[in-house]
Design brief:
This protein has two helices and three strands; from the N terminus they run E-H-E-E-H. By secondary structure, it is of the alpha+beta class. The mean pLDDT is about 95.
Length: about 80
């Protein structure tokens, strides 16, 4: 499908039952958008955070993404 970076992180409510965290994933994506980062939900259960940065991503941009995700996951969405 072309070259580039692509990563997905599946979110579940319970590690033993693997219940999909679809509502939480959508809320995380919305909050990330508010902070200036586009992350999309994907997957059969819409519980995968899809991240597709350009191959030319800078260290500064990567740090911005990680800081925003850390903020959302730490303080809530």
């Amino acid at each position: 499908h072309g070259s580039g970076l692509y990563m997905g992180v599946e979110l579940v409510r319970d590690r033993s039952t693997l219940e999909p965290a679809d509502t939480e994933t959508a809320a995380i994506c919305e909050r990330m958008r508010e902070l200036g980062v586009i992350v999309q939900p994907t997957g059969d259960h819409m519980c995968v955070l899809k991240m597709k940065p350009p191959m030319c991503i800078s260290l500064r941009s990567a740090d911005f993404f990680v800081d925003a995700l850390d903020q959302v996951l730490t303080t809530g969405w």
